[in-house]
Amino acid sequence: MSKVEVVYSGLIRTAAACTTDIYEVAPDATVHDLFKEIIRRHGDAVRRYLFSDDCLKLAPGAAVFKDGYSIRNLNTTLSDQQKIKVVVLSPMMIGG
User: Fold this and answer.
1) Rounded mean pLDDT of 50-54?
2) Cα distance between residue 24 and residue 89, in whole Å
3) Which has the higher per-residue pLDDT, 66 or 60?
4) Given 3.30.70.260, 3.40.50.300, 3.10.20.30, 3.30.450.40, which CATH number is that of 2-88?
């Protein structure tokens, strides 16, 4: 198992009711797999901030950073000791 630290910022921090979590994921886990674990832990309140309606793409206001680099591909593979930052901005902040 790989340990991944997740840092929550913006609207998702309120929905998750915390700022940081540690997850143990399979060695070949993807960001999508991690998001499913986040939803399992924190419930549907965080789902709308992470996924678009079809649960296949990031929600419009979501930004994900893997070790400081922005990613949009939910099939990005994770590895041990990585840090994932999830930032969710309000629609007003992204121009909606």
Assistant:
1) 80
2) 26
3) 66
4) 3.10.20.30
